[in-house]
Design a protein that fits this description.
globular, Pnp Oxidase, Chain A, seven-stranded antiparallel β-sheet, alpha+beta
């Protein structure tokens, strides 16, 4: 259930929040570990089609925790600038709440990996090599899809 943001004067619109998700380079995926403690890990990601896609190795803590409890949050921070004279900070951030699952469907998995390559690729040569690498690693790479239940964006000025 979505909670109301306390500082509505800082709430970003849906469009601004989605723009921030598209623009940021990494976010922190937070989940409950198998002992019930919080666990957060910074990851590269892609926001497309109203979902967040991540990738990882076929085993490890992240997958164990997600398989234990698929409810997660994902946070990105865009602009962040201290304002010492105001005892404050200028910032933009977004928090996503939802469920995460492993993508099994070949086309969706490949599309997500190519989107990641295109996002982080700085040259056409890199993107071309990345697409070949992604195609070759489809069997050994896990793609995760975060389906968004609730999304908020906040900006401090």
């Amino acid at each position: 259930m979505a909670e109301t943001m306390r500082r509505l004067d800082r709430q970003m619109s849906q469009a601004e929040t989605e723009d921030l998700l598209r623009a940021c380079h990494y976010g922190v995926l937070s989940m409950n570990n198998t002992d019930g403690c919080p666990y957060g890990v910074p990851l590269s990601y892609i926001y497309t089609d109203g979902r967040i896609y991540l990738h990882c190795a076929p085993e490890g803590k992240k997958l164990a925790h997600i398989r234990h409890d698929d409810k997660v949050s994902f946070c990105v921070v865009g602009e962040a600038e201290p304002l010492p004279d105001k005892f404050s900070m200028r910032y933009t951030s977004a928090i996503v709440f939802g469920t995460v699952s492993e993508v099994d469907e070949h086309r969706e998995k490949e599309k997500a990996l190519v989107a990641l390559i295109d996002k982080y690729g700085t040259t056409d040569e890199y993107r071309e090599k990345g697409r070949v690498y992604a195609a070759e690693s489809l069997r050994t790479t896990v793609v995760l899809r975060l389906d968004i239940d609730h999304l908020t964006g906040k900006a401090g000025k």
